[in-house]
Specification:
alpha/beta, Rossmann fold, 11 helices, 25% strand, globular, binds benzoic acid
């Protein structure tokens, strides 16, 4: 079985992951967008937060690898482009680059940081938040354990990269940034449509290629393994998110 790709559905994203932009307030505040600033929203998804930056008066460009999510962003009136965040095509075009819940999908963080530096004017800000070391650890461990029983090494399908504070700080400095702040923030995150909805939206690289019946059995086994740590007595699910939140400045 070859490595299945992540498939995005704007409708599923809105239903199962509306909390992603809804919880983006603190990182927007950290960015502190100002009227007239040119801002790139790297990994803009369906454009909910991009719209919020624009509402604060910034001139915002969204950028995302998923054509379907870019279409959803454009439908909100956001100017957005499809592209790989690890190969940004911009040169000194922005006063700030913002990113929320996207960098963990881009394994080559050094290439991202190099492209962001090039995209910024000297002194420009790179502000964001994404999954840090230990993010969704219980879910990842359950996926590895269950898929092993189905003959797949889930580590070879792991689509997410979760650096530590030390690793990501060093990487930013090596790319020519001054790190202004960086912290790992545990953020238990209620899942409005449960673990099944979350897996459905985010975990298709692990689940692709299995026949429907086997996929259903895998999902049930992952839920059973995670339930003691992530499901409460009334049946609600809370994922073990850890955010890495940072602000950096391009050195000249
Ligand atoms: C996150 O935002 O941390 C995340 C989102 C989807 C999959 C894994 C992690």
């Amino acid at each position: 079985m070859s490595q299945p790709a992540q498939i995005w559905s704007a409708a599923d994203y809105a239903r199962n992951a509306g909390f992603v932009p809804a919880l983006g307030g603190p990182v927007v505040d950290l960015l502190d967008p100002r009227p007239g600033e040119r801002i790139l929203d790297l990994g803009c998804g369906d454009g909910v937060l991009t719209q919020e930056l624009a509402a604060r008066g910034a001139i915002v460009t969204g950028f995302d690898a998923s054509p379907e999510l870019v279409d959803a962003a454009r439908a909100r009136g956001v100017e957005a482009r499809v592209g790989d965040g690890q190969r940004l095509p911009f040169s000194q075009a922005f006063d700030a680059v913002f990113t929320n819940a996207a960098l963990h999908w881009m394994p080559d963080h050094a290439a991202v940081a190099t492209g962001v530096r090039r995209a910024l004017v000297p002194g420009g800000r790179f502000v964001g938040e994404f999954g840090g070391h230990g993010n969704v650890a219980a879910i990842v461990t359950a996926l590895i354990a269950v898929l092993e029983r189905h003959g797949v090494d889930a580590r070879t399908r792991m689509p997410w990269t979760y650096p530590t504070v030390g690793e990501f700080s060093q990487l930013l400095e090596d790319a020519g940034f001054e790190v202004l702040s960086i912290a790992a923030i545990p953020r238990p995150t209620p899942l409005p449509t449960g673990l099944a909805g979350w897996l459905d939206t985010f975990a298709n690289p692990f689940l692709g290629g299995f026949p429907e019946e086997e996929r259903t059995a895998i999902l049930a086994a992952v839920e059973a393994l995670c339930a003691p740590s992530l499901r409460d007595r009334s049946g609600g699910w809370t994922a073990d998110y850890v955010r890495l939140r940072f602000a950096a400045k391009r050195l000249d």
